[in-house]
Protein: Pectinesterase inhibitor domain-containing protein
Organism: Rubroshorea leprosula
Amino acid sequence: MKRPNSLSAFLVFHLLIIFLFHSSVANADALQEACKSAASSGTEVTYEFCLQFLGENPQGQSASLENLFTFSLDQLASNATNIVNSVIPKLLSNETLRSAQKCLETTCSDVFKGVPSDLAGARRYFKEKDYRNAIPYVSAITTDSDTCEDCFRDDLKRESPLAREDDIFHKMASISLATVTSLL
Ligand SMILES: *[C@@H]1O[C@H](CO)[C@@H](O)[C@H](O)[C@H]1NC(C)=O
Ligand SMILES: *[C@@H]1O[C@H](CO)[C@@H](O)[C@H](O)[C@H]1NC(C)=O
């Protein structure tokens, strides 16, 4: 009687190992799939930047594409909040950046304040697994940092004091877009 039991326990154990191995391989693939797609999306996002960004998700290597997408949305939300609540006010208090004030106060503040509403749209469709309709919301977010940069370049004809933040934000949004596109 003992033997068949331990044999089946042995089998179950092995099947479990095989299952866990396969699911972790499948999920490490999610990170690679999202980043390959991001790196070939025609933006400046490199595969390494993407791996570094999405690799910081709380599930790590076992994250699914869905996990990676929600992580990217969370990061975009906190980035936009930081830019509005801390980065822009700090730049506005800097006397030497007087000539940048107009874009900081209007265009850039406005676009980043609008991010939560686009994120809400993306989350709503994502929750319904309607990835196709989530895409336009994420796509709109990718243009926000461009609108801010264009203000400095075209209207004020000066260097952007938000160049670094806008660049990172744009890359993060492009990765988010590539990730939701991979879910289709
Ligand atoms: C935006 O997020 C990126 C990645 O997490 C981080 O490196 C960067 O400092 C953040 N920027 C702001 C303004 O929060
Ligand atoms: C003000 O802006 C200038 C130009 O970008 C920069 O060099 C300087 O460090 C800033 N000062 C403060 C207090 O942040």
